[in-house]
Amino acid sequence: MKIMVMKFGGTSVADPARIHRAAERAVAARKKGDHVVAVISAPGDMTDELTALAKRVCEEPDKREMDMLLSTGEQVGIALFAIAVKNKRCDAISLTGPQAGIEADSRHTQARIVRIRPRKILEELRKGRIVAVAGFQGINPEDDITTLGRGGSDLTAVALAAALKARACEIYTDVSGVYTADPRLVPEARKIPEISYEEMLELSSAGAQVMYSRSIEVAQSYGVVIHVRSSFDFRPGTFVRKMKETTMEKANVSGLALSTSEVRFSVVEVPDQPGVAARILSEMARNDIPVDMIVQSAPTHRGVNDISLMTPRHNRKEAKAALEKACRELGAQRVDEYDQIAKISVIGTGFRHHSWVAAKVFETLAKNKINIHMISTSDLKISCVVPKGHEENALRALHKAFQLHRPPRK
Amino acid sequence: MKIMVMKFGGTSVADPARIHRAAERAVAARKKGDHVVAVISAPGDMTDELTALAKRVCEEPDKREMDMLLSTGEQVGIALFAIAVKNKRCDAISLTGPQAGIEADSRHTQARIVRIRPRKILEELRKGRIVAVAGFQGINPEDDITTLGRGGSDLTAVALAAALKARACEIYTDVSGVYTADPRLVPEARKIPEISYEEMLELSSAGAQVMYSRSIEVAQSYGVVIHVRSSFDFRPGTFVRKMKETTMEKANVSGLALSTSEVRFSVVEVPDQPGVAARILSEMARNDIPVDMIVQSAPTHRGVNDISLMTPRHNRKEAKAALEKACRELGAQRVDEYDQIAKISVIGTGFRHHSWVAAKVFETLAKNKINIHMISTSDLKISCVVPKGHEENALRALHKAFQLHRPPRK
User: Fold this and answer.
1) pLDDT reported for residue B147
2) Fewer CB within 10 Å: N-end or C-end of chain A?
3) Are strands A130-134 and A35-40 parallel, antiparallel or unpaired?
4) pLDDT above 70: percentage of residues in chain B
């Protein structure tokens, strides 16, 4: 059975006209011979509205009950989508996450998919039906609904594509693919026709908001080909897949990413002893706080270091508390917080052996008088933290310097 | 285990403040020692809004998908209710109809409860939790969600009270009980402290909109005591229960009901032959159209009859089609439709052997110059169809004539 998974995000099903457009896509694919599983998100702002409603009832609502509440959004989406498909004289059925056999763990509001039992989906596909599956939700061993957290619907789509051995997983969204930089900030940004899982992962974790890294990781593990494309036109978007190593022994810059959703913390004057960085990081890990770009200054003559890191803005409260605890225990001087910053990342391959790329990044920023607060590099990514307000200039300058508006030579 | 079922309708959970008030009631009952099962409806106008949304997608949406869609309303209700209860430091858990073990048949949008398996509810009650169960929904043998149609949440409450052998089933609503007549139309109307299942059934089917008859029938079958009361104050409302026959050999008028939601059809000049009424009614039954007050005129000298009946206004289209089909097949002359009518019913007991009650009804209407279009009587009910515009006068006159503002002598 040739199966295609098509995922429609919240903006793609935000109103009846868009629901019909999404349904038409699915029907067209079905008529071309594919069996179609459509993964649907909550229409428009529904998730935000339900969250706001719950917060009016209680400041910190119970997480199990939040899952019960929020999972209704996708349930509304699949029902309306199936109604629209049937209206086009194509048979369809909607399935909630639990009905579709999506088994998750019990970490309410941020569950992980444990297993998919696609019996019911396959049964319905065999009847020729388009199967609309609610994204973002599963069932835990206690028969409770759990939701999958940020990027949950993409994850549902990719995991289903893996479980069903689908020939592709199309992610329909309001942008037409993955770009060399955010086109709203860099007008000459170019759509990337295809990109490797590794680079897509780096782009995502560096702030490109097309897909969350967890879905890309699953796609990579199971070899699912992802096609990120627009729900508003029919042009091909960006394929994310295993790439042949055409760039072996060559450096390749594929795109730029910007993140303004992080803050920087510095623990100042930490005694220069073995184990201090570990102590700080384990305190962050214990509190489940994501950390990026850990930088330790060289020790001064007074035998002390500064240790700096980046963490998501929405974790700043817990991060500050955790770092202050570690600061006291280590006898460090204080914790500083920097808020007016932006992180620019250059994504590609082969950076480790081609230091000219890093040199060009620093040079370009210097030429544009943009100060660099922090640097972190890997084989696939060079990230620089710059002062807030300079990020657009930096993006445009780097885009030009690396000639990203031109398709790469093969 | 002493169990109390409390049902909160849509108006009782329409906004966060009301949800908190409902939650407080449940917590208070729990603290007094009852184990509490709270049956919750969809907040406010949510069901209507979802229906309107579906109709914007498709004029006649698929019924299975409508159930998938509409069942989210109650799911939102139970989640918010459980969040509010937990906020009051009382443990709670919400369960959808399927999770609560409410098994229904497959008549989508108007399913019937087949069986309740209350294992999960009992397990949660034993943990001391308040269990919030989604009204109006169940699961069919194919694992699909089905909804129970009009009055579905009341039905869920009464059926749960029966299955759990609850000591009572409290129905919280925006009126403070069952009245001798609609207090908005008859200011001197009196709250009825208790009423038998039979009379409550007649009141409901005659148009009193407090509860639908199907819930009362189930309560009667299983001996569930219903307490209809206001969610806005703490005064006792109306108990619906098995009554001792104190009125044996005496007629008793307990209340008046008004229905303006029906239309009258007449099949004119039907040949006076055996089986014609059956033919007409079976055509209505085949189309699942409710029928009330079937009246056949005495045959004229030309050997023809008129057959008239009442049917809900929202069924008028199908009713007209069905009757016109029967009309053609029977060689009757035509189908007339009367729209400007209202049905007044006097509800009580012992009417069959006390014809003075019927006489007094007709007399009172005549004295007030109110013309009667149709009459139908039973031991428990006398219904008269009157011209639209006269219904309030008729109600007030009858209320006074039977002195319903005074409590009945015991």
Assistant:
1) 97
2) C
3) parallel
4) 97
Of the candidates B332, B214, B337, B209, which has an alpha carbon nearest to the alpha carbon of residue B264?
B337
Tokens for B291, please give them.
């029928």
Q: Cα A255–A259–A264 angle (5° rounding)?
A: 135
Residue type, position B242, single letter: K
Neighbours of A121 (CB within 10 A): 25
User: Which helix (DSSP H) or strand (DSSP E) does residue B115 occupy?
Assistant: strand B113-116
Element (H, E) at B64: helix B63-87
| Whether the Cβ atoms of residue B255 and residue B208 lie closer than 8 Å to each other | yes
Instruction: Confirm if A166 and A3 have CB atoms less than 8 A apart.
Output: yes
Q: Is B246 left (phi over 0), alpha (psi -120 to 50) or beta?
A: alpha
Q: What is the mean pLDDT of residues A40-66?
A: 96
Q: Which residues of B touch A120 (CB under 8 A)?
A: 143
Q: A83, B76: Cβ pair inside 8 Å? A: no
Which positions ≥6 away from B90 have C-beta within 8 Å?
B26, B27, B30, B31, B130
Tokens, residue A297: 């200054």
Locate the chain B residue with the closest alpha carbon to A68. Answer: B79
In CATH terms, the fold of domain B3-174 is Carbamate kinase (3.40.1160)
How much is the CA Rg of chain A, to the nearest whole Å?
23
How many CB pairs below 8 A link A and B?
Answer: 100
d(CA B256, CA B203): 7
* ipTM of this predicted structure: 0.82
Contact: B68, A61; criterion CB under 8 Å: no
Cα separations in angstroms, B327 against B60, B267, B313, B339: 28, 7, 20, 19
The SS3 call for residue A21 is: helix
The residue type of B341 is: I
Helix (H) or strand (E) holding A143: none
